[in-house]
Amino acid sequence: MPQNPPDQRPADTKTPETNAYAYEPVLSAEVRAALSAGPPVVALESTIIAHGLPRPRNLSVARELEGIVRSAGAVPATVAVLDGRAHVGLDEDQLERIAGDPSVRKLGHRDLAPALAAGASGATTVSATAFLAARAGIGVFATGGLGGVHREWSENQDESADLRLLARTGITVVCAGVKSILDVPATLQRLETLGVGVVGYGTGHFPGFYLSSSGEPVDWTVHSPEEAVEVIRAKEALGGPAAALIVANPVAEQDQLDPALHDRVLAEALDACRERGISGQGVTPFLLDQLMRRTGGASLEANLAAVRGNVALAARIAVAAAVAR
Ligand code: PSU
Ligand code: MN
């Protein structure tokens, strides 16, 4: 919501085409209608589309993920920034731009304000998507794997902004854990410190993104969308500071990447990243691309299987939450 009345915001004037303030996120007509009268809405991020998957397959995946949400009886809200406007819910042309335009940037939460002010276009990471989705009133969000603490944290302090943003945002995120390129135990430790709830979906182990299990235990398990909704309701009833709930949903064992291949190829990819001196926002897309190349595309299939499963589960949770109200 705007913090100042319009007359105190000289830089933010109503644009004639949408009759909304320029820096206010634009909700698609379908998402706006769904948020006021149902059906339930599931937010989807766009960095995975623009920077996590190869073109042109990324566009068909983006459409497929929206289709999975619809067939479960919910409305997809893919989030992105286009020409300095934050959008919650994209039309076909907008989805094509995110998937096809290589100049689309990668925007974390902190990048949103500069991107809007500059009139830039970018895909939103988990941190930016969760922020915009929660601000729009969306309660459930799906992605592949969260960002987290990188393996060489003691040297470069690279920790995804996803973690801190989720620690301050009351949204349910369905994901296959955190990316296995990360230091998973350290990331779980950070989530504990930050007060972000984690429940395994049908498992007592934290998923390993490309792998069904990271080998790390989780303290709590739910077995159905309805059980996940009970956790959400209890969390809402308790009140207190906002924080996300992570529903950690493993990729099916038959769809996971071969664990031995994963470990070998990841070690090579981490070496390549170090040798080329890649840092900052480039690290995650580089490592995902390296894994894809070095596994002959097998990591891509495992990633896609994980994302599809997460989107389907997020939609079932959103539908179950709507029924429970
Ligand atoms: N899940 C995937 N592929 C991805 C991502 C998630 O299956 O590419 C993206 C998300 O947008 C997440 C980002 O926020 O990777 C993490 O990037 P970084 O480590 O730079 O914060
Ligand atoms: Mn990083």
TrEMBL record:
Record key words, sorted: Glycosidase, Hydrolase, Lyase, Manganese, Metal-binding
Cofactor notes: Binds 1 Mn(2+) ion per subunit.
Positions with a binding annotation for substrate: K106, V126, S160, A161, D162
EC number: 4.2.1.70
Catalytic activity: D-ribose 5-phosphate + uracil = psi-UMP + H2O
Keyword Protein transport recorded: no
Binding site for Mn(2+): D158
Cofactor(s) listed in the protein's UniProt record: Mn(2+)
Active site: E45, K179
One Pfam family matching this protein: Indigoidine_A
Domain of life: Bacteria
Molecular function GO terms recorded: hydrolase activity, acting on glycosyl bonds
Xref: InterPro entries: Indigdn_synthA-like, PsuG
PANTHER family reported in the protein's UniProt record: CARBOHYDRATE KINASE PFKB DOMAIN-CONTAINING PROTEIN (PTHR42909:SF1), ZGC:136858 (PTHR42909)
Similarity comment text for this entry: Belongs to the pseudouridine-5'-phosphate glycosidase family.
Assembly and binders: Homotrimer.
Physiological role: Catalyzes the reversible cleavage of pseudouridine 5'-phosphate (PsiMP) to ribose 5-phosphate and uracil. Functions biologically in the cleavage direction, as part of a pseudouridine degradation pathway.
Identification of the protein by name: Pseudouridine-5'-phosphate glycosidase
Organism: Streptomyces anulatus
